[in-house]
UniProtKB/TrEMBL annotation:
Domain of life: Bacteria
Occurrences of domain Histidine kinase (ranges): 541-760
Domain PAS stretches: 4-56, 135-191, 423-472
4-aspartylphosphate modified-residue sites: 831
EC number(s) given by UniProt: 2.7.13.3
Keywords for this protein: Kinase, Phosphoprotein, Transferase
Domain Response regulatory: 781-891
Catalysis performed (reactions): ATP + protein L-histidine = ADP + protein N-phospho-L-histidine
PROSITE patterns, per database record: HIS_KIN, PAC, PAS, RESPONSE_REGULATORY
InterPro entries attached to this UniProt entry: CheY-like_superfamily (IPR011006), HATPase_C_sf (IPR036890), HATPase_dom (IPR003594), His_kinase_dom (IPR005467), HisK_dim/P_dom (IPR003661), HisK_dim/P_sf (IPR036097), PAC (IPR001610), PAS (IPR000014)
Organism field: Sphingomonas turrisvirgatae
PANTHER family: PAC DOMAIN-CONTAINING PROTEIN, PHYTOCHROME-LIKE PROTEIN CPH1
Name the UniProt record assigns to this protein: histidine kinase
NCBIfam families reported in the protein's UniProt record: sensory_box
Length: 896
């Protein structure tokens, strides 16, 4: 029995699991070596003590740990075996997590007599979990800043992460691509292939790569490479995939073009039985394809050298071949390598005739570094010549050679060769016709030449025929011939009359025509863009100066009106002047909107009120021949829009409608409230205000309607339109979360719907604010900086009325000098664009000394580039109430 107990104790003490034995009072009666190492206590120190007192003196935060909350003690005697995690305290005072199992020990009577507790230190596991979470966090951060699209899946194949670049590229809402939602952005024709490739790879847990087309945010599809690697943890458990998606659309297009070009070259050389060769002068290495090796009786797999070439040439032909090669590689001569020679087969000893042509390639120093060329096996031709020479002597031999050469050119040329009668029928044509027009030779010969020519070119063909009948040669004559697929090919002709026929040589110039047309279109678009940019810069500059002129006018008139100076007549004159100044301010804002010199500033807009306010302007713009009808529905909710940009869009749509009705007609502008229950085309589900502009004009065909919103696309002719009206309106609607939809029918008219989302706030009521209530009792020194004296004087009067002590400066540098002399401003009001230092630069410099200094940027130019969003801005011109409102907001921000 004692031997058994010793063995049992040896087993327990050698276990890596900490083991505790408790009696029926939950006092410790035994702990193994692993338990001593785990707790820091020796067995003698714990005997007769509750385990709770040893390892649970207090919680990690220092509060007491009641026995009633200890799950280990609860395992006996009321409960059965229990598992869980606990936090122990070591003898040296540090805390560590453990996993435990506590089981009652039953006596012979079946009643519990004690507890056995097993515990395992979880410190290393918890550290690994924490490190894994940190690693995953770093990975997600790195992935979201990666320039390529990245994704991660779980072991079941579900996508658990897509980086920011994926959602930016596809336009999917963040999170919608997870699971199998990423497939929604894949081209429908590629979706099954992409899914099957992934599922198969995931089942085999192997790396994979697949190409598919992915929808970009603008709706276009681009070819991409999706490559991924399987992930495994340190124990070899499969975790899923991590992969990337790269846009290869341009590379794939280039590869397709290269492959087509190489295939065309291969077919040309195969049809012509032409071999190519290339000699590296520096290394003496030589490239010979199998066709050229065959001309020297060498097997395709045998490597060749320049020595093989020299040795392979017939001894009688070596000298002329060498001389021709030296002339081609000589920097001073650079002759065409054009020689015919015999070869003696290295492996079969057969003598063959070869016709070789080539040229040397020279670097900038005039050194020949390569000689490249072609070789044709002319053994058969030479044999024919020999037979002809035997039959018909020299003359017949030469005639036969010329005929053979002509036939080869006739057969192999890519140009169109033809013999045609003046009756309009082809007498003979070469095979290039079949390649160019997609019809066989017999079918082309059966057609009248006029039947193949584009109807618009018939009169030009008749004039060309008259020239030929007069015996004149016609060069660079162009017309269009019908291809078998129904398209038209542009052909440039040289035609020579001879007797009752004429000879024609034509070349397909369709690609050149298309390239020229595309270049012309691009140049016109560039001209229009440059014109718009110049007009924008001019308009923006004029508006800036105009705002500076209006600021003292508006401020002074506002002061006169508030003071109630003069009698009733004078007040009417002041009111009229104020209205004119407001109209001038509105005009400047529209000029800036036209010049695109202000950012989009969405707000709640009463579209019906805006349309009614634009009615007179639209009527005057469209002219007396166009009847303008406005139908604004009552009770419309406010729309989320930029009123200035919306006015410009409505004006552009009105001008387009007017141009579509050259003989007059009706222009209807209708506003309605619409509800979209589910996603419909470009519209998301939600509430909208629809602004419809309909005309009774000429309408559009399908091709024009498809391109109507393209920038610079216009049907008005050169110089009559920029082609930007519809594209600007479309961009405005899309940026606001709406859409622009065009319906048109030729001869009926066009309807353009501008869908604007309903705003969550009410439209501005235009109420007049109480200046005193807005800024309270203003105190302190206001530093006013503006390079315009009149603007500065008007603004200084307003600030003085608010209770500020005003210190004026003509520039940022002057203001800094005042501060350097001891001025301590409580408020900075500064113009933005001034000679030298800008207002923003002045504000940043002063805030280095006065971090809490309130700053208001005042500018007559709506361009806000360089102005941080955190800096409050006030546009010129402005009234006292508008200045007070801006100061009230500014003071509220700086209150402690």
């Amino acid at each position: 029995m004692k031997s058994f107990e010793r063995r049992l104790n040896a087993i327990v003490n050698n276990s890596t699991m900490a083991i505790f034995l408790m009696d029926d009072r939950q006092h410790c009666i035994f702990m193994n070596h692993a338990a001593e190492e785990l707790t820091g206590y020796r067995l003698e120190e714990t005997l007769g003590r509750p385990l709770h007192d040893v390892v649970h003196h207090q919680r990690p935060d220092g509060s007491p740990y009641p026995l009633a909350e200890c799950p280990i003690d609860q395992a006996f005697p009321e409960r059965d075996r229990m598992q869980g995690e606990e936090v122990f305290v070591h003898k040296d005072g540090h805390f560590y997590p453990v996993a435990f199992t506590a089981s009652p020990i039953l006596g012979d009577d079946g009643l519990p007599v004690g507890t056995i507790i097993e515990a395992r230190d979880l410190t290393a596991e918890k550290a690994r979990e924490s490190a894994l979470k940190e690693s995953e966090s770093r990975f997600r951060n790195m992935a979201d800043h990666s320039p390529v699209m990245m994704w991660v899946t779980d072991p079941d194949g579900y996508c658990i992460h897509l980086n920011a670049r994926w959602y930016e590229f596809t336009g999917q809402a963040p999170g919608t691509g997870e699971g199998y939602g990423w497939l929604d952005a894949v081209h429908p024709d590629d979706r099954l292939l992409a899914e099957q490739a992934f599922v198969a790879a995931n089942a085999a847990r192997r790396d994979y790569r697949v190409d598919f087309r992915l929808r970009r945010a603008d709706g276009m599809y681009r070819w991409t490479i999706d490559a991924a690697a399987a992930r495994f943890d340190q124990d070899g458990r499969y975790l899923g995939y991590v992969g990337s998606v790269i846009d290869i659309d341009e590379r794939r297009e280039a590869e397709d073009k290269l492959a087509l070009s190489e295939e065309q070259l291969r077919l040309a050389t195969e049809v012509g039985e032409i071999g190519q060769w290339d000699v590296d002068q520096a290394t003496g290495s030589m490239f010979w394809p199998p066709r050229v090796k065959a001309m020297f009786g060498i097997s395709p797999h045998v490597p060749v050298t320049l020595e093989d070439f020299h040795n392979g040439v017939h001894p009688d032909d070596r000298e002329k071949t060498r001389a021709a090669y030296e002339a081609a590689s000589d920097p001073d001569r650079r002759a065409l390598y054009d020689v015919e020679y015999r070869t003696v087969g290295k492996e079969d000893g057969i003598i063959r005739w070869v016709a070789a042509k080539g040229r040397g390639l020279f670097n900038a120093d005039g050194v020949c570094f390569r000689v490249i060329g072609t070789a044709i096996d002319i053994t058969a031709r030479k044999a024919d010549e020999a037979r002809l020479r035997e039959l018909n002597e020299r003359l017949e031999q030469e005639v036969t050679a010329r005929i053979a050469e002509r036939n080869r050119v006739w057969e192999m040329s890519r140009d169109l060769f033809a013999i045609m009668g003046f009756d309009g029928h082809l007498k003979a044509i070469n095979p290039a016709w079949e390649v160019t027009l997609g019809r066989d030779v017999e079918a082309l010969l059966a057609l009248s030449f006029r039947d193949q020519v584009h109807p618009d070119d018939h009169s030009a063909v008749e004039s060309m025929m008259e020239q030929l009948l007069r015996g004149e040669t016609v060069e660079r004559f162009e017309d269009r011939l019908r291809h078998a697929d129904g398209s038209w090919r542009w052909i440039s002709w040289t035609l020579v009359p001879e007797g009752d026929v004429f000879y024609a040589v034509g070349r397909d110039v369709t690609p050149e025509k298309a390239a020229a047309a595309e270049l012309e279109h691009a140049q016109e678009a560039l001209r229009q863009s440059q014109k718009m940019e110049a007009m924008g810069q001019l308009t923006g500059g004029v508006a800036h100066d105009f705002n500076n002129l209006l600021t003292p006018i508006v401020g002074s008139l506002d002061l006169l009106q508030r003071k109630g100076l003069g009698g009733e007549r004078e007040q009417r004159l002041i009111e009229g002047a104020i209205q004119s100044a407001e109209r001038a301010r509105t005009l400047v804002q529209r000029l800036l909107a036209f010049a695109r010199r202000q950012p989009l500033q969405p707000t709640a807009v009463d579209v019906g009120q805006l349309v009614n306010g634009m009615a007179d302007l639209l009527a005057s713009t469209t002219g007396p021949q166009v009847r303008v009808v406005v139908d604004a529905a009552d009770g419309l909710p406010p729309a989320n829009a930029d009123p200035n940009q919306l006015e410009m869009a409505l004006l552009n749509l009105g001008v387009n409608a007017r141009d579509a009705m050259p003989k007059g007609g009706t222009l209807k502008i209708i506003t309605t409230r619409e509800v979209v229950d589910s996603e419909t085309g470009p519209l998301q589900a939600g509430q909208y205000v629809k602004l419809s502009v309909a005309d009774t004009g000429v309408g559009m065909d399908d091709a024009t309607r498809a391109r109507a919103i393209e920038p610079f696309f216009s049907t008005k002719g050169i110089g009559k339109g920029t082609g930007l009206g519809l594209s600007m309106a479309h961009g405005l609607a899309a940026q606001l979360g709406g859409a622009l939809i065009i319906q048109s029918e030729q001869g009926v008219g066009t309807n353009v719907d501008l869908w604007l989302p309903v705003s969550g706030t009410s439209a501005s009521s235009g109420e007049v604010y109480d200046v005193g209530a807005m800024i309270g009792d203003a105190r302190g020194i206001a530093l006013l900086v503006d390079d315009e004296q009149a603007v500065r004087a008007s603004t200084a009067d307003m600030l003085a009325e608010f209770g500020f002590q005003v210190q004026e400066a003509t520039s940022g540098e002057t203001a800094l000098a005042l501060v350097a002399d001891g001025l301590m401003p409580d408020l900075l009001v500064t113009d933005h664009l001034m000679p030298g230092m800008t207002g923003v630069e002045l504000a940043q410099t002063l805030r280095e000394t006065f971090p809490q200094l309130p700053v208001l940027i005042v500018s007559g130019y709506a361009e806000v580039e360089g102005i941080a969003p955190s800096l409050p801005r006030l546009a010129k011109p402005f009234k006292r109430a508008e200045l007070a409102a801006s100061l009230a907001v500014l003071m509220a921000r700086t209150e402690p």
